[in-house]
Amino acid sequence: MSLPNVPDIDPNITIRREDAINLLLTSIAMEEIGLSHIIEAEGEKIQRVVNDRSLSFCDVLKINDSVERILRNVIRNQMLLQFKLEDVLKLDAKLTGELLEELEVEEYEE
Fold first, then answer.
1. Residue 14 lies in a domain
2. Structural domain of residue 37, as residue ranges?
3. Is residue 10 over pLDDT 80?
4. Is 10 domain-assigned?
5. Alpha carbon of 39 to those of 27, 36, 43, 85: distances in Å?
6. How many Å apart are CA 77 and CA 66, to the nearest integer?
7. What is the CATH number of the domain that holds 50?
8. Contacts of 72 (CB under 8 A, 6+ apart)
């Protein structure tokens, strides 16, 4: 068995701190959009169950348990995203604070 062929990629990536913060916020937003699609799909599943009179009580309970498990996982992911957002906002506050300090120093020097 041979090793995979990895292309020669320059590992040096230059990105400003402000751009990194924007990318982190965008990633949080994209994950939230994905979770909203999952919630919407689960709601549609419940609507189908409510409208389908041929399902047995046991089938309805199984679907209910399935929806509950999925929504619990969505809630866990949203909690993690909240932590991530708080950390990113702290980074942004540090960046804003550093910029204000630089502006104050420049004003003082003039």
1. no
2. 21-109
3. no
4. no
5. 19, 5, 6, 20
6. 17
7. 1.10.287
8. none
Cβ contacts of 5 within 8 Å, gap of 6 or more? none
Assigned domain for 6 exists: no
pLDDT at residue number 45: 95
Helices (H) and strands (E) in the chain, counts: 2, 0
CA 74 distance to own-chain centroid: 11
Indicate the number of domains in the chain.
Answer: 1
Q: Note whether residue 1 is domain-resident.
A: no
* Residue found under tokens 């939230």: 32
Smallest Cα–Cα separation from 38: which of 70, 9, 10, 64?
70
DSSP 53: T
pLDDT in tens, 26-76: 999 999 999 999 999 999 999 999 899 899 999 999 999 999 999 999 999
* Beta carbons of 78 and 35 less than 8 angstroms apart: yes
pTM of the model as a whole: 0.72
Best CA proximity match to 60, nearest among 71, 45, 49, 48: 49
- Least Cα distance to 74 among 31, 45, 44 occurs for 31
